[in-house]
């Protein structure tokens, strides 16, 4: 059931679809329509009208205590869809504020074209104690609807009336001019002719064929002009009745009908209009509602981004405890004095991000994790080796300064002090003068050689310091992500040693592939930090020396 997660929040089938196996064991009439696949999965043939009818009758009996009869030649309703509509009407009429003319006691509604099942009144009366006026033009449907109401003992709440053809609201309310109804419901005929009902002209050729059978009499599935003209007639009736009903509503089978109907309501000056979507199984339906009351609260329509993005798993990899201990042994080289597994891995990650000029800051996290919020403003982790080789070649091709002149000394050395060496605020004594904009490449045989690169712009006579990118700058960014380092196996008490898992959660940006590249770079850098910059990393060498888990 692909759309079940988007059902109305109160729909009982949203998180618990019908259990066919259980229902088959309890109801013999349903059991004969159930089949079991070779894999043991219990299913139902939704293209068989008798099977669909058996399911509807069984669900109404099991979940609502209702016993109904439906002829095969008339519309067989699906319970989850009708339940979605009922719950939406609850949202509509439950949001009435301060209406002095509100009718005390149970709500009153009208079901236009109730059908043989009379399902909306039966559900509304059973669940909420609503009073219903149910209208029907078809003789067979009228007789079955009246019988279904009587055999469930709901004649005090539901009145089924036979009305002439093409009668909607005006004629049905002539005899009860004093009553103010809270709402009307309608499941209009969707199609204008037989070809449209078969999907010849109305169904996109790229869509798969319907997964269920289409049942219903002529008056139930077809009307002149289809659902669009049918609902327009209800709109015109509402313009005369106005406040005789608090809410007018209709279900729609085609999304393309929604916009012209809303435009019609706008032209007529209707003050309150809203719509929604009904999602169930593989079926989508839409509904439109409008009101002439100023004091009703209008439920918000569904977001345009109704289809939730697929939940993406974070990019992650794990460092097992033996791997973490090797990193701990190398930690003093980056000035890290921590001994806990989590703090050591976090220090290495922060050091690597700093070298890459990736903006990062710590954010609050739990005891067994550390969290960093990353903002990448430039792609500094791609083709690192090639960049390093190119800049080495540029350094070799630079002309040397003459020994005489103004006494300046120009030498090419390492770009930054050794991690264990002293720090000074004065200009570095070994900095060379070279054209502005030339990059100096760090090329030590330490932890980052062969894995990452630091480039610094050296201004003439300005020393060797490079200001990091400002976190408050408004420059565009490539992506933002949340990186978590979690200490595994901390269920019993707080531990300092253990496996560490790094996870990168996408927040926003241009391309998720960039985050994937950075994640791979972090993995490789941690490996090179252990083996040294001159070690050639291959998957075989990694797996043979120490354990690392990648996901």
From TrEMBL:
Compartments it resides in: Cytoplasm; Nucleus
Enzyme class, UniProt record, top EC level: transferase
Biased composition (Basic and acidic residues): 420-445
One GO cellular component term noted in the UniProt record for this chain: cytoplasm
Coiled-coil segments on the chain, per record: none
A single MF term (Gene Ontology): mRNA m(6)A methyltransferase activity
Reported function: RNA N6-methyltransferase that methylates adenosine residues at the N(6) position of a subset of RNAs and is involved in S-adenosyl-L-methionine homeostasis by regulating expression of MAT2A transcripts. Able to N6-methylate a subset of mRNAs and U6 small nuclear RNAs (U6 snRNAs). In contrast to the METTL3-METTL14 heterodimer, only able to methylate a limited number of RNAs: requires both a 5'UACAGAGAA-3' nonamer sequence and a specific RNA structure.
Family: Belongs to the methyltransferase superfamily. METTL16/RlmF family.
Protein name, per record: U6 small nuclear RNA (adenine-(43)-N(6))-methyltransferase
Name of the gene this protein is made from: METTL16
